[in-house]
Amino acid sequence: MRSLDVAVIGGGPAGAAIALRLARRGVDVALYEPSAYDQVRMGETLPPSINPLLRELRIWLDFVALGALVSHGTAAAWGGDEVTARSFLFCPYGNGWHVERARFDRMISKAAEKSGATLLPARVRRVRRAVGGFDIDAEIPARAAAIVDATGRAARISRGLGARHIRSDKLVCAARMFPQRADELLRDTFVEAVEHGWWYTAPLPDGQRIVACFTDAPIAARMELGTPEGWAAAAAAAEHIGPVTAGRATGPVRVVSAAAHRLHPCAGPGWLAAGDAALAMDPLSSGGVTSALRMAKAADDALLTGRRSPYAQLVEGLAVDYARQYSESYGWETRFPSADFWLARRMPSARCG
Ligand SMILES: Cc1cc2nc3c(=O)[nH]c(=O)nc-3n(C[C@H](O)[C@H](O)[C@H](O)COP(=O)(O)OP(=O)(O)OC[C@H]3O[C@@H](n4cnc5c(N)ncnc54)[C@H](O)[C@@H]3O)c2cc1C
């Protein structure tokens, strides 16, 4: 059986960035990732605060080569019918981006490989504690002195080690892709609050536009948002999103979980969880990828020194910032005081902090 210093499980932004950092420090690290990054991945809008993180990771030139679309700002019909815009013009970090997430994630894992990490194309089924570390049950098994759970929202590996998943909502996303038009009404990121949740649309570098509805799973089921008919009816009823989707040919509806949660604890002897596995945020924050890279920045020290508390404090700080932003953002929208979706977001348990 292969023997490793660290096994990172999951090659999304969190896991790939941790593998990259550890490999650069001379650690014998392997990155388990079952996919070939050949399927569409959600999470395509990156805020300006990603820029210093990509530079610090020394993958800025790789990122530029991806040909991401510049995002100049966001616009929203939130808290009122009128559209308000926020430009990134005066943002100290510059502009934001729209990326193809599968290519973005692959870029980081390739950088990790180039720096000496071993990519293991396998799904990890289970991890068991063993003498001096952990046994990794996968098609390519290994024994590792330490492990990182970077498997995303499900956080299966950490839960298998006894950590608790504290869920704060039942958010789902029902998304469809449309071919981008030259005369597009909404060009950059746009968000619209509606009675049953909120809509989001953004352009993608491959000439497509994503249009997605975020709501709670029971509401999505009631509205049949997973069907083309249910989705189209809901889109048509949204004042600003309706005209963007009207009469346009499109593909199937893809429904994915976007449920927010926190893991407790986020680290233990010889292991830590990073990215969405540790703290999964409501995508309204657009902060999932930047948080994943921030956790990665602190994770290598935690793994190499065994000092977990600075890492746990960082995750706690991210959760507190997120909870504040969450309360403010959802608090701004007061037009639907008795709607289930908005009522659920006024409960203190809806926050992850
Ligand atoms: C609908 C939606 C829209 C979003 N929009 C945005 C956005 O616009 N901007 C933004 O910043 N964030 C957004 N997010 C959040 C963002 O996508 C996540 O925060 C980010 O992907 C977290 O990265 P991660 O590496 O922790 O997890 P993930 O990106 O989920 O990666 C997990 C990886 O683990 C692998 N994996 C899973 N199980 C196993 C296993 N058993 N063995 C081995 N590998 C495994 C998976 O294949 C995957 O590559 C969105 C999220 C959702 C759900």
TrEMBL record:
Organism expressing this protein natively: Amycolatopsis camponoti
Single GO term (MF): monooxygenase activity
Matches recorded under InterPro entries: FAD-dep_OxRdtase (IPR006076), FAD/NAD-bd_sf (IPR036188), Flavin-dep_Halogenase_NPB (IPR050816), Flavin_halogenase (IPR006905)
UniProt domain FAD dependent oxidoreductase: residue ranges: 5-35
Domain of life, source organism: Bacteria
Protein name: FAD dependent oxidoreductase domain-containing protein
Stated family: Belongs to the flavin-dependent halogenase family. Bacterial tryptophan halogenase subfamily.
Pfam family, one: DAO
